[in-house]
Structure formats: structure tokens, C-alpha cells
Amino acid sequence: MIISKTPFRVSFFGGGTDYPSWVKKHGGAVISTSIDKYCYITLRELPPFFKHKHRIVYSHVETVKEYSEIQHPAVKAIFKRFDLGHGLEMHHDGDLPARSGLGSSSSFCVGLINAINGLKGKKMNPELLANEAIYVEQKILKETVGYQDQIASAFGGFNKINFYRDGKFSVEPILIDTKRLEKLQDNLLLFFTGFSRFASEIAKEQEKNSKKNETNLFKIKELVDDAEGILCNSKKNLDDFGSLLNESWILKRSLSSSVSNNEIDLIYKKAIKAGAIGGKILGAGGGGFILFYVPLSKKISVEKALHNLIKVPFRFENAGSKIVLYNPSGF
Questions:
Q1: Arch. (CATH architecture) of 2-174+317-326
Q2: DSSP letter for each residue of 33-67
Q3: Mind listing the pLDDT tens digit for each residue in 216-230?
Q4: Which of 155, 232, 249, 265 has the largest count of CB atoms under 10 Å?
């Protein structure tokens, strides 16, 4: 039996510049962090005493004899790509709901690939792990997804991720003073809007509009460097990071009519009125989690204004996807 533990991520700046069609022409960059909320994959060789060969447990339970019968697209693709030659039982558990803007689908793929290779006795480095997950999502599943989520969950940490036109990427840790990093975390509030969405549908519209949105996408990419400059210079006011989030949110809303809606706009207005400096819907938009930068003196006011939403305390993490239990003795 083996268990992988893979973090979700919070993306601050650069979202939209990590999609393949954009990266191949212009390159891209994001600033994101993995957080202490995780996807857990438990995987073991299934004893040969059952009528079924594979058992897959997530929000549904599947018992099948062949890969072709598996209904979960990512499980089907990964089991087939990394065929172990025997039956498998997989359980999925997550700290937060799916389709919520925290890269949960990519965390799932990264975690399952890590676990299935771990069961084979193969340790995967973060770069290989991220590239395999990208290949599965983009090439096999044909999902309209970017590159950042797989990389963030595989590597972990608070990073600037650069995407190059040749398909390669680099991960650069944000070099920020420890106390300043703590202050940044203390000034962030995360809420669940209460509704989820399919990110790939919104992403398709964004990609379709990429030519029309070219000017704003270049501005979104520029904000990555601006944000890094604020974070890494202790002489600059950290509240400027919040102002950049607001600027980025305005630009992001322009990329697609599906990014925001009346409910999200109302939540955002309430938070700003209560003292938040800036914020954004995480992921492609349309629902899920919403993040705000709020000075400490205004946090209680913002929490009261959004009392009807679920607040999710979180901290940054640095480990990335890892194997937390390995029992090679089988069943």
C-alpha cells in the first residue's frame, strides 16, 4: 500500500498566460504558492479474490474488470499509461471540494501518478512528475488547462514559474524575508463562494478570445514582475501587493464573460467596502474560492461582511507532492 499527499495551490498573478496557445507564441509567467490543504491518494495492489480487477473510490465507487470500463477519465488514463499488470484499488480523499479554483484536478493527477510510480518502486522528481501530469491532462484527456497547476502541486513552495515557448519551464522560489512572508499570509483571507464550476469550459472561452485579449494578457504577465518586486523589496509597502491583486482581477474579468457573475461581483464589492484592498476568484473563475488581501486591522470587518461564506484558514507549504506511506509488502 502507498499513500501520496499532494497540495492544492493558490495562484496570485499571471493566470491565463500559462495556456499552451499563449505560451507557444509569447511565453508566460505566474506567481503561485502551494498551501496546506491536500489531495490524498491511497493505492494498493488488489488481492485476486474478487470478481472485479480494479476498485476505484472517490465521490463514486467503481468496480471494473478492464481499464476500458473505468468512468473516471483521469484514473482511466493514468492506470492505462502506467500499467502495473495487476489489479489496483484506489481511494481519493481531499481537504477541499473539487472544481473550486485551487488546482484540485491537477493535484489529483500529480498525486495518482506519484502513487502509482511509487507502487512500482520508482521515485519521481518534481519536474518529471509535473510533465507527466501535463501530458495526461493536455494530450490524453484533451482538457483545456494550463501548465501552472501541475507544476505548483508537484514542486510545492511559493514560486515564480516561467513558461517558455519551447515547452520548457523554470521554477524560481520567491526570495522574501521570513517575517514579510508571515505578514503576507496573515493578510490573506480565503472564502468558499458555495458554488463550483468546470474550469475547462471557462478556459476554452478564454483561449478562444486570446487574440482579442492580447493587450490585457501582456499586462497580466507584467504584473508578475511588479508583484515580485513588491514582495522581494522590504522597503515597499506590502499593501501594494493587494492593490496589484485588484488590478489583476479587473484585467482577468475582461478575458471572458464567464470569469465573474452577479454573485461574485457582490461578494467582491462587500469585501472591498469592508476594508479589503484587493482580491480575485481563484482558478479560471465562475465560482469556487475567492481570495482577498486584507490589512490586519480590517480582517474582522471583512469576515463579518462575508459571514455567510465559509472561511478557510490556510498557510503556505513547501513540500509539494510526496509519498507519506510506503508498505511494499503488498496486501
A1: 2-Layer Sandwich (3.30)
A2: EEEEEEEEEEEEEPPTTSS-SEEEESSSEEEESSG
A3: 999 999 999 999 999
A4: 155
